[in-house]
Structure of Transcriptional regulator:
Amino acid sequence: MPLPKTHHCSACSDGSATGDVLHEDLVVGAPLSMEELTDAQRLDRFALKYAHDGCQVREVRQVPHDTLSGYAWSVRFSEGS
């Protein structure tokens, strides 16, 4: 199943000593099957979504959200400068 085409950057900050910029997106509407994946599989799945911009996904976690399903996915990723 494809991931949503859009995401919303909820927080950005200057990152580590490598000069990366860290972002946190809130992705709403990902398939319910995402819950059945392991953490590593979710990381790989979201990594494909962000790879086209040269971004590297660092963390994916489920967070509460005011939607019908009651949750969304928080995706932390870095964008090299």
About this structure: The chain has one domain: 8-79. The radius of gyration is 13 Å.
